[in-house]
Design brief:
heterodimer; A: about 375 residues; mainly alpha; 10 helices; B: about 775 residues; 5 strands; about 5% strand; flat; zinc ion transmembrane transporter activity (chain A)
């Protein structure tokens, strides 16, 4: 009869202890491999942006300044991923009874949306510029874009490595946090002098750093140790495709810069940026679809095939009349939760049916199952 | 029959359409492809030949050559039953008609070129019959067929109206090239009488002859049975028609002098045409029809033919192919300039034709929409097919639009959003058209920005519609969450906009651009007016809706003064309606979520109006006092305002998406949980999860531990009632008795093996842990 939820002030710190909090965050960031990688990459990106900003202020180039602001904007995505990977490790409390694991999904969703927005902006700008190619001064385009490519490559390397870690890891005492990072979702695009009016006209290449789409899946409940496997594969594949597309994008920027420099093909820039934006848009769609599905409590596609078979097996149990209101949904990656109602015969052994049902659905991969048993009226 | 068969297979539980394994069919498809390619080649070649050879002579040679070969292969006289005299007469009639049809077809070819002929004339019977049945009978076979027919007609119209074949119009002035016989002259005068251009007349002619051809094919089916096979009929028909044409050809060659220098050079092309157009195509088609389903064959054939036609049309007049075609003499080189060129209209109509063919030739399938009822004892899902799901084979587009419009207008809030969206779109389009007309890039890009903003409105509208969808098997809780998601997306969207405006205004603060304010005022006043109308519309709603739920108002108006090189323009956005949010946080909206939604939209529009007022003020300041700094400060202020006001919305939506226990229910739930513990027989509870699914649905799950001697059903009912009182309307309660755990732990050793087999070691640990905890 003990109250299982403690409503004391134990969870809340007595006073706001900022240094302690920050060091706690640091520790939690550095304790996990994926969030560590994210953090380092964020630092790299931020330092790149700061160098760009300070250089821009020093040389008084508006293009570089606004480019660095764009970079900061992109860093927010990375930051969101990092925050999510920290938040998702928070314990569940009274109001968040499932814990904060969904932060991962939400972060992936937000990042996907940001990417879509960026793609849209780049696309519209590219179209605008394709109709009326501005004169882009490409003095500083090439070095900046090459530097961006280097940053991206580092990101790819780091996160590919992280992906490896995912396949290796799995036996630490935290259960198992496997990560599907969209980490270096970096996309390069070149904004060439959209402020031509200022007499500025200095085009600047601009290759974004990565956006972390973190989908990792740490333990959500103490009792929900998750075996990470299965569906992550497609995501990982999608992420990898995405990264490749982004790197191709920054390669495209370099190519267009070269074309502009060598042959004065001004049209190369808008065409490149349109292609890049389409690539980004296409690569983001699966991520968005998946995260929307999870957020909308969709029946997980991974279970789609297994569920009818499970229903069949449950209904073949002795004494089960009918199965009603099956709801299955994804809490976070690979953690599936289900509720259903069973209509059973009055003389049936409800405990046996309950345990059998649990075992059937556990085999299909459902972690938490709530079975409400209703006895049919005679 | 095929049709019936495939739909039977479809309804018998398989999800996809059952098709014959492709590996076996690939052969035939490739064969079909090759034959169609050759046919297209032949048609192109015969178009070139028809410039030199008289049409009647041409057809005669074709029929004769075909007849010779076919008689040799088919041996219609030596094999099969003897043909009676009546049948011969029928055959004669048949041949005459076929001559007339091929005459018309080839005449059409001379008029409108090979590509257009291919597009118009070479539809399979199946397609045209489906088309005609749609057009002239009431039960055409469902909306998809209607769509196909509409596409077909659009394609023909495209060819008629939008095909700017200027070169042909010139040729029509002096068509003495081939109007040296009474027949062609009569046709020409008929076309000229209709008052259409030459190639358009050809289009009409081809359509007519296509219909004739199909009717003729249908009629000749009986005859082919009588004669003994389509192949025999074809052979005999060719023979008889060459005999029919013979006197005419003799008369022609006696009266007119031929333009052909040497017939020997034409033997090869003629042979090619006879082989590809007349013989190979006929055989391949008949083989494919027997091996594959007829609709499939027709579809593939048409697509291949049109594609190869397009390809050839592209390369036929290419200098490189001219070199390859050694048989076409250099004397014809000058005529290649007047070749029928590929125009946009032709390509569009080709695309339409392909789509129409694939729709019209596809077998009509049964509608698969139904609501899930449950699962049969065998575990297969059972669907409840409503009446209309059975009647409509597929969703018809006009019907769909009508339905969704009805749905939109049904509910008050979606109706408001819809009207406002229409207004906004109208404003945008006026702006765009005006911009295009005056060639002002600033206005155009402003219009595009407005369009982008309208997307938020569209999103809200769509979410308001989608919320009302029924729950499906996949989305078992229904689509209520769409509202929250759309609110979240809109909030993010606003944040991004705010961020960009912020950055831009900062850069402009550093270096205030010289803004040309000419365009600024009318546009922003227009935007203001639109927003005012929106306010009027929404305030009406607002006054009706009981203002019981406080809503997060977020607002933004922002001015973009894009520094375009020539046209600077201020830009005050019209309202962005964020439908579908607000109710997320304010839970005491018992069905009043819509009101909160409307209120949110209203406040939003109000804020937009304030934003555009701000733009106007800054314009006036700039104009009167030359304070260029006013604009960036204004937009800075506005962007901060947006940012701050979006945050509550975002946090609310994110909380719902993170499955937080609804804050406003928290107190009730705690009381309810205490009550549950006091229910007689309940030992304790664990894992109480309550979360808001959508505005109206709160779901909850709980595990109860009961004493072993109580009646479960009673307790479940009590607990459910208690939770329902607390506001949770989708509860599932799992009861666990002492005995159950013992049972479970006893079972778990057995489990272990099963789970090890299915490689679920981790979850096994969970089960064990669970038992330990309990």
């Amino acid at each position: 009869m003990l109250p299982l939820s403690i409503k004391d002030d134990e969870y809340k710190p007595a006073k706001f202890n900022l240094p302690g909090k920050i060091s706690g965050w640091f520790r939690s960031i550095l304790s996990d491999k994926t969030s560590r990688n994210l953090f380092f990459f964020l630092c790299l990106n931020l330092s790149f942006a700061f160098v760009e900003l300070s250089y821009g202020i020093w040389s008084n180039s508006l293009g570089l300044i606004s480019d660095s602001f764009h970079m900061f904007f992109d860093c927010t995505a990375l930051l969101a991923g990092l925050a999510a990977s920290v938040i998702s490790r928070w314990r569940s409390n009274d109001s968040f009874s499932y814990g904060y694991v969904r932060a991962e999904v939400l972060a992936g969703f937000v990042n996907g949306l940001f990417l879509i927005f960026t793609a849209f902006f780049i696309f519209s700008e590219g179209v605008e510029r394709a109709l009326e190619p501005p004169h882009v001064n490409h003095d500083r385009l090439l070095p900046v874009s090459i530097a961006g490519l280097l940053v991206n490559l580092v990101g790819i390397f780091v996160f590919q490595h992280g992906g490896h870690g995912h396949s290796h890891g799995g036996d630490d005492d935290h259960g198992h946090s496997h990560s599907m990072f969209n980490g270096s979702a970096s996309h390069g695009h070149s904004h060439g002098g959209h402020e031509t009016k200022h007499g500025h006209g200095d085009g600047h290449g601009h290759s974004h750093g990565g956006h972390g789409h973190s989908h990792d899946d740490p333990h959500c409940h103490d009792e929900l140790h998750t075996p990470g496997k299965g569906s992550s594969k497609q995501i990982l594949q999608g992420v990898f495709l995405h990264i490749v597309a982004d790197t191709l994008g920054s390669v495209g920027v370099i190519i267009s810069a070269l074309l502009m420099q060598k042959y004065d093909l001004m049209i190369a820039d808008p065409i490149c940026s349109i292609c890049i934006s389409i690539l980004i848009g296409v690569s983001v769609v699966p991520l968005l679809r998946e995260s929307i599905g999870i957020l909308m409590q969709q029946t997980p596609p991974a279970l789609d095939n297994a569920l009818p078979e499970c229903y069949q097996r449950v209904q073949q149990l002795q004494g089960v009349y009918n199965l009603q209101e099956p709801h299955f949904w994804t809490l976070c990656t690979d953690v599936y939760i289900g509720t259903l109602k069973l209509l059973i015969a009055p003389d049936a052994d409800s405990k046996w049916i309950l345990s059998q049902t649990h075992s059937i659905f556990t085999q299909a991969g459902v972690r938490q199952l709530y079975v409400q048993i209703e006895v049919a009226a005679m | 029959m095929d049709d019936k068969y495939s739909s039977n297979v479809l309804s018998s539980g398989k999800l996809g359409r059952v098709e014959v394994p492709n590996a076996r069919l690939t052969r035939y498809i490739v064969l079909l492809l090759v034959s169609k390619l050759l046919k297209a080649l032949g048609i192109f070649e015969s178009y070139d030949l028809l410039k030199v050879v008289h049409i009647v002579q041409f057809i005669f040679i074709l029929k004769l050559g075909c007849a010779v070969i076919l008689v040799f292969f088919q041996k219609p006289f030596s094999s099969g039953k003897v043909i009676s005299k009546r049948q011969w007469i029928k055959l004669l009639k048949h041949a005459v008609i076929s001559c007339i049809i091929s005459l018309l077809g080839f005449f059409g070819l001379t008029l409108c070129g090979p590509l257009r002929t291919l597009l118009l004339f070479e539809h399979s019977d199946l397609v045209v019959i489906a088309l005609l049945s749609v057009l002239f009978t009431s039960s055409g076979g469902g909306p998809s067929k209607t769509r196909g027919a509409a596409l077909f007609i659009v394609a023909v119209i495209c060819l008629l109206l939008f095909d700017n074949d200027d070169l042909m119009a010139k040729m029509a002035e002096h068509p003495e090239g081939h109007h040296d016989s009474a027949l062609t002259h009569a046709l020409y005068t008929a076309i000229a009488f209709l008052g259409v251009a030459d190639h358009k007349g050809g289009v009409v002619l081809l359509v007519v002859s296509l219909c004739l051809k199909i009717g003729f094919h249908t009629a000749s089916r009986k005859l082919s049975v009588e004669i003994g096979g389509a192949k025999r009929l074809y052979a005999l028909d060719n023979l008889v028609s060459s005999v029919v044409l013979l006197p005419w050809v003799i008369v022609l060659s006696a009266t007119t002098e031929s333009k052909v220098e040497s017939w020997s050079a034409l033997i090869l092309p003629f042979g090619m045409i006879i082989f590809s157009v007349m013989i190979l195509e006929f055989y391949v088609e008949s083989i494919c029809v027997t091996k594959m389903e007829a609709p499939r064959c027709a579809r593939y054939g048409a697509i291949f033919l049109f594609l190869s036609g397009l390809l050839l049309a592209n390369f036929w007049t290419h200098p490189l192919t001219d070199q390859l075609r050694t048989m076409s003499k250099s004397s014809q080189q000058d005529s290649t300039e007047t070749e029928h060129v590929l125009s946009g209209g032709v390509i569009v109509s080709a695309v339409f034709f392909i789509m129409a063919d694939s729709i019209l030739s596809s077998p009509s399938k049964k509608g698969q929409k139904g609501t899930l009822v449950g699962y049969s004892p065998e575990g297969t899902p059972l669907y409840n097919f409503m009446g209309d799901a059975l009647q409509h084979t597929s969703q018809s587009l006009p019907h769909f639009i009508k339905e969704s419009l009805k749905q939109i207008l049904e509910e008050y809030d979606s109706r408001q959003i819809f009207y406002f969206l229409c207004l906004n779109l109208a404003f945008t389009f006026v702006e765009l058209f005006y911009g295009v007309w005056t060639n002002s890039l600033g206005l155009i890009s402003d219009g595009f920005h407005m369009l982008f903003d309208c997307s938020a409105l569209v999103l809200g509208l769509f979410a308001a519609l989608m919320t009302r969808w029924k729950a499906t098997r996949i989305f078992s809780y229904g689509y209520g969450r769409v509202e929250i998601l759309s609110g979240f997306i809109n909030g993010l969207f606003l944040m991004v906009i705010a961020f960009f405006v912020f950055v831009e205004s900062i850069t402009r603060l550093v270096d205030p651009p010289n803004i040309n304010t000419d365009m600024l005022t009318p546009v922003s006043v227009g935007g203001l007016l639109v927003n005012l109308v929106g306010i009027c519309a929404f305030s009406h709603a607002h006054s009706h809706g009981a203002a019981k739920s406080s809503c997060s108002s977020h607002d933004h108006g922002h001015s973009h003064g894009h520094g375009h090189s020539e046209h600077n323009h201020g830009h005050s956005h019209g309202g962005h309606g964020h439908g579908g949010h607000g109710q997320s946080s304010h839970g005491h909206s018992h069905g009043g979520g819509m009101n909160a939604n409307m209120r949110g939209v209203f406040l939003h529009v109000l804020a937009d109006t304030l934003g555009s007022v701000g733009v106007i003020i800054s314009t006036i300041l700039i104009r009167q006092f030359g304070w260029l700094i006013a604009d960036p400060i204004c937009s800075l202020f506005i962007s901060t305002l947006i940012f701050l006001s979006v945050i509550p919305l975002l946090t609310d939506a994110a909380e719902v998406l993170l499955l937080r226990t609804p804050p406003e229910l928290e107190k009730d739930l705690n009381i309810a949980l205490e009550k549950i513990e006091k229910v007689e027989g309940v030992l304790s509870y664990r894992d109480p999860h309550f979360w808001r699914h959508s505005a109206s649905a709160v779901a909850g799950t709980i595990h109860l531990q009961l004493m072993s001697d109580v009646v479960e059903q009673r307790i479940i009912q009590q607990v459910t009632a208690i939770l329902k009182d607390a506001g949770v309307n989708n509860v599932s309660v799992q009861v666990e008795k002492e005995a159950y755990f013992q049972h479970m732990s006893g079972l778990s050793t057995g489990f272990h093996e099963v789970l090890a087999m299915t490689q679920h070691m981790e979850s096994m640990k969970y089960l064990k842990d669970g038992t330990c905890i309990m």
